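FAQ

Q: What does a record look like?
A: Structure on top, sequence underneath. For example:
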């Protein structure tokens, strides 16, 4: 058997799927509603911020790139309202328009959670490290073309269509340098940390009784030596 026949290669589409899974997981948990994305991915030549609300995040480190998510106003308001209602806020306390600063702030917070979830998976599954800047949310009335401010030799761009629980559409665009991760040593990806289990373990450690000092079992060798010297 050729030694490379069983080599596992992790490429652009795999990174994209990991990012898409972070989007659906974080938004589903935050809003208590299902999200899904298309099984078909578009190859595109440029990344753009588009109306009604656009968000972009740059990341760098093991690999560099740009993530853009373009929300329709209907999708943005559905996510915003579902998130805050699931946290116990009343409908009367919510912003009425997608142009409100509160909507942009909440959407920016959710996008930060999405990218944080993604960077954690990159660290556990690819054994490399990337950092990201704070997501920027912009209310737009026209398209804005963005390029990656990074040293990309062979940039690739992809677009994926997402659907909310009410079938409102938003789009994710990823621009990344063409890259492949090849497994040369077999390893098991680390499990995602469980925050609840960590908090419980910390609480048990804080309430556990302090260990008692061991009882003396007789004279030590040092004591015997001191007595033999008349001390």
């Amino acid at each position: 058997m050729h030694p490379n026949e069983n080599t596992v290669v992790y490429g652009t589409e795999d990174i994209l799927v990991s990012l898409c899974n972070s989007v659906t997981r974080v938004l589903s948990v935050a809003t208590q509603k299902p999200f899904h994305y298309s099984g078909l991915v578009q190859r595109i030549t440029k990344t753009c911020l588009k109306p009604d609300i656009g968000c972009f995040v740059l990341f760098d480190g093991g690999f560099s790139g740009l993530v853009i998510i373009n929300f329709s106003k209907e999708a943005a308001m559905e996510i915003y309202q579902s998130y805050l209602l699931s946290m116990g806020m009343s409908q009367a306390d919510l912003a009425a328009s997608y142009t409100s600063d509160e909507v942009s702030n909440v959407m920016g917070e959710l996008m930060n959670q999405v990218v944080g979830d993604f960077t954690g998976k990159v660290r556990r599954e690819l054994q490399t490290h990337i950092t990201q800047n704070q997501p920027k949310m912009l209310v737009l009335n026209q398209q804005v073309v963005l390029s990656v401010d990074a040293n990309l030799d062979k940039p690739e761009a992809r677009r994926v269509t997402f659907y909310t629980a009410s079938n409102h559409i938003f789009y994710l665009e990823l621009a990344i340098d063409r890259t492949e991760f090849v497994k040369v040593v077999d390893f098991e990806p680390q499990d995602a940390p469980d925050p609840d289990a960590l908090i419980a373990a910390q609480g048990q450690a804080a309430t556990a009784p302090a260990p008692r000092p061991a009882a003396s079992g007789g004279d030590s060798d040092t004591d015997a030596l001191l007595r033999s010297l008349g001390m």
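Q: Is there anything notable about this one?
A: The longest strand covers residues 53-61.
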